[in-house]
Amino acid sequence: MNNEGVDESKRQFLTSALTVVGAVGSGYLAVPFLAQMQPSVKAMAAGAPVEVDLSKMEPGQLLRVAWRGKPVWILNRTPAALETLKTMDNLLSDPHSRESIQPDSSKNPTRSIKPEIFVAIGLCTHLGCSPTFRPELAPHDLGADWKGGFFCPCHGSRFDLAGRVYSGVPAPTNLEVPPHRYLKDTLLIIGETGKGAAA
């Protein structure tokens, strides 16, 4: 092979230029491929913990927020509502929440960290319908033993103001209590139980 008349500097330049163009082209091809493997911003936000300011909540008020695509209820129970919880055991399927999903901090008679603030996932444990909040006492359609709570219109399941399921209804367990904690007295974070630990 005769290399006479070949300009080595041009060959070196062309080789370097093609290498750079090839590397840049590979990068342009790789970025979209790698980006599709990452969860979307919407997906990351849907699973992220949610902070809720409780400073303006009135007694008896129910707030609704979304966490992981599910409705979460935050109920500020009145002292009278807390007293009724003590009288409900004989009407409930699992009054001590032994068969229910809740963090250790909520394994108590009020199913909450602070007795007055109840946090629950707002989906019936039967087929996932969203119950309605019915705080009134003994309405004609729910009967004399109704002391306020949540009623599922899909199949008639009933839950008290601690999300505990009544006996004899389709729902098998109490409403789920999501992981949550207080960052300060009136600032709640849903989706975390320990310091900075996402659940």
Characteristic key phrases:
199 residues; Rieske Iron-sulfur Protein; 3-stranded antiparallel β-sheet; 3 helices; 11 strands; 22% strand
Biggest sheet strand line-up: 1-9-8
Question: Biggest β-sheet, characterized?
Answer: 3 strands, antiparallel
| CATH class identity of the largest domain | Mainly Beta
Number of domains: 2
Counting DSSP E segments of at least 2 residues, the number of strands comes to 11
Roughly what is the average pLDDT, rounded to an integer?
A: 86
CATH fourth-tier homologous superfamily of the largest domain: Rieske [2Fe-2S] iron-sulphur domain
Shape: elongated
* Rg of Cα set: 28 Å
CATH topology title of the largest domain: Rieske Iron-sulfur Protein
N- to C-terminal distance: 69 Å
Percent helix range? 10-25%
Structure classification: alpha+beta
What series of H and E elements makes up the topology?
A: HHEEEHEEEEEEEE
Low-confidence stretches: none
Strand % is: 15-25%
Description:
- With 199 residues, the chain is α+β, with helices and mostly antiparallel strands.
- It folds into 2 domains: 1-38; 44-198, Rieske [2Fe-2S] iron-sulphur domain (Rieske Iron-sulfur Protein, 3-layer Sandwich), CATH 2.102.10.10.
- The protein has helices at 8-35, 41-47, 79-85, and strands spanning 50-53, 62-67, 70-76, 117-121, 132-134, 149-151, 158-159, 180-184, 187-190, 192-194, 197-198.
- Strands 1-9-8 form a 3-stranded antiparallel β-sheet, with no helix packed on it. A 3-stranded antiparallel β-sheet has the order 2-3-4, with no helix packed on it. Strands 5-6-7 form a 3-stranded antiparallel β-sheet, with no helix packed on it.
- The model has no long low-confidence stretch (mean pLDDT 86).
